[in-house]
Specification:
By secondary structure, the chain is an all-alpha fold. The protein contains 18 helices and no strands. It has one domain: MFS general substrate transporter like domains (Growth Hormone, Chain: A, Up-down Bundle). 78% of the residues lie in helices and 0% in strands. The longest helix is centred in the middle third of the chain and has 31 residues. The mean pLDDT is 88.
Length: 390
């Protein structure tokens, strides 16, 4: 195995390990609802807090050019270390929702130095076919996103504090892999001067702006679909006290995990047809599934689940392609800042789309709720169609 491919595997594994602290609140929510007497809305704050922290962190990292003016591997390590510490605080010092939310928010801030910075590290090792390489890294992160649902599917008989502490240990290990087990990539440039205007200036470049708008449309759908799929399924399977015909957490895990194959295979195909083509096909497929979701609502499980697996494949298969396009269309010396600000705005979109779809479900029912996600991939595809091919 050559050095570049070895570096890709190390970075992908490190991102998966370091981002494990992202999901501890979600995994613990079912237990904490009982122990702390939390409502469904209060329990969701454990997830919202880390998302809000990530958004805040991305804007701070971007405005300060952290990922560009400091050594990238050091930024990753310090961020992973901070995430491990704050997540351990969540495990050891939280005795109620208020304290837990603070630690989850601080953990989210540090994750801004893990996921976007990990993408920049990959870009330092590869100049061509970047979408294929990023597909592997984003696939690893997607699998991590699915793991809380796997825990719920097999049974939540775990000590949530030990689970959180184990995640902190994994995060520390991931940071150490990048800092001490990985060399700088051959395309590491000279550190640019500090420029707080870069976070805004990158959007003046039309190709970057168009692919970014495509990414924002993609994000409108992605996390709302992942987050609310269990509620959609519960309503579709009857919504009453009767036992659903299948394990809903197991289905959600399978649908999100199908995105791992989407990221990897989408990246592999992009080597032949380019990142733009893969993104457009993925957005088109997502639009079709969103628009037809009312027809899926009452399908029997044997028909519905295979269709949801296909949806799960396409819903995230364009994500690494947008990162590759962002790295290619931004000023090369500020790649880290561009990736970070794009991620930050994208996740800010999810903070709007998730509660909006939940609100829509109360007004028109779950049968129609996911159809309102279609606006994201539709507008995203429109922006991408205006982006000139390489």
């Amino acid at each position: 195995m050559n050095k570049s491919n070895k570096a890709l595997l190390l970075v992908s594994g490190a991102v998966l390990l370091a981002s494990s602290v992202w999901f501890t609140g979600t995994a613990a929510a079912a237990v904490l609802k009982v122990r702390w007497g939390l409502s469904e809305v209060e329990a969701s704050a454990l997830t919202i807090a880390v998302q809000a922290g990530f958004i805040t962190g991305t804007f701070l990292y971007a405005l300060l050019n952290v990922a560009d003016i400091f050594r990238t591997r050091t930024v990753f390590f310090v961020s992973a270390l901070g995430g491990a510490v704050f997540n351990a605080g969540f495990a050891l010092l939280s005795h109620g929702l208020a304290g837990a939310a603070v630690f989850r928010f601080l953990t989210g801030i540090t994750l801004a130095g893990v996921y976007p910075v990990g993408m920049k590290i990959v870009a330092q090792w590869f100049r061509e076919k970047l979408g294929w390489r990023l597909g592997i890294m984003v696939g690893a992160l997607t699998f991590g996103t699915a793991t809380p649902h796997l825990l719920l599917a097999v049974g939540a008989g775990f000590d949530w504090r030990l689970l959180a502490l184990a995640s902190s240990a994994l995060a520390l290990a991931g940071g150490a892999v990048v800092k001490f087990g990985l060399a700088d990539g051959p395309f590491l440039g000279v550190a640019p001067p500090f420029d707080p205007r870069v976070a805004v200036r990158v959007f003046r470049h039309r190709p970057f702006r168009l692919q970014a708008f495509g990414y924002f449309g993609h994000m409108w759908e992605l996390y709302a679909f992942w987050t609310l799929l269990a509620s959609f399924l519960a309503a579709g399977f009857g919504g009453g006290p009767e036992r659903p015909p299948v394990s809903i957490p197991a289905v959600v895990f399978g649908v999100i995990a199908a995105g791992v194959a989407g990221c990897v295979l989408g990246g592999w195909v992009s080597r032949r047809v380019g990142e733009k083509a893969v993104a457009l096909v993925s957005l088109g497929a997502s639009f079709i599934f969103c628009a037809l979701s009312p027809l899926l609502f009452r399908l029997p499980a044997g028909t519905l689940i295979p269709l949801l697996l296909v949806w799960g494949f396409f819903v995230v298969s364009d994500s690494p392609q947008f990162s590759a396009l962002a790295a290619r269309t931004c000023p090369p010396e500020y790649t880290g800042t561009a990736l970070t600000i794009q991620n930050g705005i994208g996740f800010a979109v999810t903070v709007v789309s998730i509660p909006f779809i939940a609100w829509v479900s109360k007004r028109v029912g779950w049968k129609w709720a996911f159809s309102f996600l279609a606006i994201g991939p539709l507008l995203g595809a429109w922006a991408m169609s205006r982006l000139k091919a390489d």
